Amino acid sequence: MNNLEIFCICIDNRLLNKIKKITYTPVGLGSDNFSNGWITDDKGAHISHKNKFYGEQTFHYWFWKNGLKKIEKDKWIGFCGYRRFWKNETCNLEENANFNEKILKKIGDNWENYDVILGDKINLDNVSWIKVLKYGKIAFIRNPKSIFKKNRSIRFHFDMFHGNGALDKAIDLLNENDKDDFKSYVRNNTSYNQGNMFICKSKDLMNKYYETIFPWLEKCEKVFGFNLKGYGNTRIYGFLIERFMPFWFNKYSKVLEIPIIYYDLTKDDLL
After folding, report:
1. What is the band of 147 on the pLDDT scale with cuts at 50, 70, 90?
2. What angle do CA 4, 30, 46 make, to 5 degrees?
3. Which domain holds residue 88?
């Protein structure tokens, strides 16, 4: 894969052969009985038991503690999910190409000019007003203009789906170097790099990132706990990182954005 390894993070043991067929590295999360051929997040130093609340971040913790030091120098390391993939920029999605040809397999010609690859941004102003009224009544009261597709900040969107005021509480627990900047970021931006995915070749940069997020999440656990109801609240730690990750890499590194495409590997007609 031309000095590129992409870990495909998954919760379904049945997808092993499909992930291998696209030449990605299979990663199994949580308590499923994964067969040989998977990297799992429950060996060595791990927090696999928190997967219900952290999502794919339990693998990132495992990778930080057990895998990062083994990565070859100058090798690009990327992460994706089994329904979210990096797009092959040389492939036109309108063409009659199969799934294997549509996804990223090698580093881009201009990547050496950047530190990190992130997905293209999702625009929160595109959230329908029906969802705003259904999920974000309190957030809507705080910001009535949101119904007209204006001023739907990252903070507003987080409050709408994951609990009013939850993001502010989490930000208060951040380190002093990032607290004010992240607070400004979520209040003044209406888009962020989607997918909870990144590609990076600097072991030092990844280590600094992990050294930032996991102590922060431990502090957040003392506020939110684990007796959480509903998907949006139960997975709050993963959703916090989904917003924080693009902020942090854009602040501390030079970022290139490339498209993300959505396909579900559980469907039989993709490969």
Report:
1. low
2. 75
3. 1-109+261-271
- Asked whether residue 241 falls in the same domain as residue 266, the answer is no
Give the span between the Cα atoms of 125 and 147, in whole angstroms.
Answer: 9
213 and 145 in a common domain: yes
Contact by Cβ (8 Å): 100, 21? yes
Burial of 221 (0-12, 13-18, 19+ CB in 10 A): middle
**Structure confidence by residue, pLDDT tens digits, 160-206:** 889 889 999 999 999 999 999 999 999 999 999 998 999 999 999 99
**What is the model's pTM?**
0.91
Closest CA to 71 of 206, 203, 204: 203
Distance CA 125, CA 122 (A): 9
The answer on 125 and 87 residing in a single domain is no
